[in-house]
Amino acid sequence: MAAKRRKASGGSRKAARPARPSRKKAAPAAVVEEADDRAGIPVESAILVATAVLLLLAILLVDYVQGSQYGAGMFFAGSYGG
Between the CA atoms of 55, 60, 61 and 64, what dihedral angle is there, to the nearest 10 degrees? Predict the structure, then answer.
């Protein structure tokens, strides 16, 4: 159960003292350098290459199915004709 708040009494409170500065000296900040010499290609380039390869593979697979099933297509049309 929470305690009840006391009512503020007129002038019995002391005035707050200003905070005095701490005597500890701040340690010098360590110099942190980022390593920009990362090996490999950026993520955006890897996604671009993977997307291009998968798109080309999908086009070739659709053309293969058209050539083998229907005798149509650009690359595999004459390969499976009987």
Answer: 170
